[in-house]
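Quick check before the chapter quiz. The format below is the same one you will see on the exam, so make sure you can read both the input and the output lines.
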Amino acid sequence: MLTLYVIKSCDTCRKARKALDDRGLAYRLHDLREDGLSAGLLEELLERAALLTLLNKRSTTWRNLSDSQKASNGDGEIRTLLLTHPTLIKRPVLDTGEEIRVGYRDGDYDDL
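Here is the expected output.
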């Protein structure tokens, strides 16, 4: 089954959910704010998606970080930031079971 990682208030996440619903695809919804992000889940995602692909430097959360936090460039430091602030993950993240798709634009799920 597909798993869609979202923040429920995110407009792009809503579009992704609608795209899956319109195609009649079953999926499990995981809200990163409500359901959280564990170290284990982050590692599962990172097995199939690059760390910098998951990091959303355009988010409000990123803009609110201190300059020293933004200067973090080690993988461990970035992982810690993502675990501390799950809203730093670019959304939505779709786990198809075979691949991870980060972000959404119209038509991205047409091949599912």
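If your answer matched, good. Residues 2-102 form a domain with the Glutaredoxin fold (CATH 3.40.30.10).
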